[in-house]
Amino acid sequence: MHKILMVLRREYFESVKKKAFWIGTLIFPIFIVGIFAIQILASVVSPDVQKQIGVIDATGEIAQPLADKLAENKLKDESARFPVEIIDAGVDFEETRLANVGRVESGDIYGLVTIGPDVDDKKNFRLDWRNIGDQATENALESALQDAVVGVRVDRSDLDLDPVKLRELTRWASLNTYQVTKGGETKEKGFEDAFIPTMIFVMMLYFLIYFHGYAMTRGIIQEKTSRVMEVLLGSISPNELMAGKILGIGLVGLTQVSIYLITGWVARTAANFWVNVGEMDRFLDTIAPAKLLAFGVFYLFGYFIFVSIFAIVGAACNSDQEAQQLQLPIVGCLMLPMMTTFYFVANPDSLAATVLSLIPIFTPMVMFMRISVLTPPLWQIGLSLLLMSGTVYLFFRGAAKVFRIGTLMYGKRPTVREIWRWAWS
Amino acid sequence: MPGPQPTYYAAVAPLVGEEHDMDTAIALTDVRKTFGTHTAVDALSFEIPRGTVFGLLGRNGAGKSTTIRMIMDIIRPDTGSIEILGRQMDGAVKDRLGYLPEERGLYPKMKVLDMLEFFGSVKGLKPAEARRRALPWLERLELADWKDKKVEDLSKGMQQKAQFITTVLNEPDVLILDEPFSGMDPVNQEIFRDLLLEINARGTTLIFSTHVMESAERLCNQIALIDAGHAVLSGSLASIKEKFGSNTVQLEFDGDGAFLESIPGIENMHRSKRYVEINMTEGHDPQRLLEIVTGRVQVRRFQVMEPTLHNIFIDQVGPGSDQETGAAERTNA
Description:
- The complex is a heterodimer of chains A (425) and B (333).
- With 425 residues, chain A is mainly α.
- Chain A has helices at residues 2-16, 19-45, 63-71, 93-106, 135-156, 163-174, 191-225, 228-233, 238-274, 278-285, 289-316, 320-326, 328-346, 351-357, 363-373, 378-406, 416-424; strands at 53-57, 84-87, 111-115, 125-129.
- Chain A is elongated.
- Chain B has 333 residues and is of the alpha/beta class.
- Chain B is 31% helix and 27% strand.
- Chain B is built from ten helices and 13 strands.
- Chain B has helices at residues 64-71, 91-95, 112-121, 127-140, 156-168, 186-201, 213-219, 237-245, 286-296, 309-317, and strands at 24-35, 38-49, 53-58, 79-84, 97-100, 174-178, 205-210, 222-227, 230-236, 248-254, 266-271, 276-280, 298-305.
- In chain B, the strands form three sheets. A six-stranded mixed sheet of chain B has the order 5-6-7-3-8-9, with helices on both faces. In chain B, strands 11-12-10-13 form a four-stranded antiparallel sheet, covered by helices on one side.
- In chain B, α3 (112-121) crosses α4 and α3 packs parallel to α5.
- Chains A and B meet through α1 and α8 of A and α2, β5 and α3 of B.
């Protein structure tokens, strides 16, 4: 036990002392915090800008109601967010539009709304502007236009309708705030809300398992090429060496995951304090404590399952190039669940998702994916943990055997069949 | 050598075991190891008494490294038994051994003292204790100024010294060195020879393999000569020399020595540039030889002596074999 601890201690401190570890570790939280910061910043800073809107109206009926509608949208200082300049349509409204587009380009007006004579024509309404990514402005303009046009249509119709009442009803239907929810009772609001954070987490799982797994391979190859391996084996057994390395590198990974989880938790707490934006809630749900815990657990299982295979690759190879080749099937096994994310997030309870989440090498990512979208039946989670534990045990045993034979093998790389034979001998 | 002396207590805390033999450090009985179709070691048996300096001699590829790796339990014999300090190998026994493999290995990115601490700690020492023991050694081998440098910044000679320290931090009962002098410059060879003898004088059994007979001759009092996996000779150097050496003559002369071939009673001859070493057959008197040669050539020196290990080696395992023959060293062994 003492010797395992000593190996663990060396692996751990030699890793965390490296600059690369800290750079690699900090990039992700900085990235996430950056996204938060930008969102917060955007929600705090951007609204207080006036955006001049030019309106050319060939009907002569819509411009004013549209301006009235937009005037309801105010900045904090009670001035209009969208001051409207009604531009006379002239003889040919299209010519007038072309004459005024230059003002958009120069920034004189933020956007130019052009309304043709036929309110029933789909192509009748047009917005010329530069910042096509400004979704909020587009939505505001569209919604105001909607109201104005409906009012005109009602006035023109023969029906004897109360325009005010009708407008309310129409607004009701067009508000479109009920999104189709995925997974019934979950808090998830829609596919993107489930897909993007899940994808980020699954990618993190992939990178963490891969990086720390491959650190095992690289470490073993370095010990072989620097011939330190035999010096070590003069002091400790191959099993002790492997156990120490697995635990040491595992602890490095756990340190990294802890930093991520703590960052996530801090970000969540901070966001709860400072930001009161409804939009944020959906995002915060994705870093709920239970989900972070699940992430930690499935990371550990994933690491322990794959690190044995990475150890086998290291023991069997003499150079990084050889190892790169031999590890390809492992990378494949890790990539597969990532590629299924799109489908499985939409169908977390499908037969394929259920089966794949119970195959131990796919469990860490697929089961985590399912949990993060819609909690699967508890017996399935329990069974998957049991199956993974068994797999970890089997893989450790096989890896220990290959390790013992492979660590002192130099020269030709053994074939996969030979490795297989060693593992189960 | 100047500077403070390392704290070195040989054979502290003898192993507690059922029936351990205090006189034998290592005993191999009928050990056999094959790699695929190649038999590396075959029916090998010998004993290494405690406190001796034991030389495991043989040509390249004779099975020396394989034997040493089996003693260290790095590879396991197919059949036969190996007893170390009177017991089967286990973790506790391993802690009492020091091992320097033929292929040296250090962690290039680690700091010297950190690395020594690590190697000491995997021999069962507490890290602080390993550090404490490493410092005097670093002083003595003039590496003290380098203790916080990375291993890769050390010269080759300094790395050899650091490597040596890793093998003695646990104050081993038995120190096993595979070709310890290969790749060393003469100065380092001399330093290490003295160190090894000093360590042996304090009670550590020393085992080393070599194909350089001069090293063995100067250090060993026990040897085993192996060839093709078999022990050809084993025992104390004195008894082996006695067995071979009652009638060896070194002859230095001016003139044509071709006639020597025809003299009866000469078992074999080894010619050097300046002298000839002659083994006489049993029952032939070296004095008679002197009489013959004085009549034919100008004798400058005539000396009856025991044979060198070099010549015994060549007699036993064939001519030209103690040189680097270029025969491929089996690397998977």
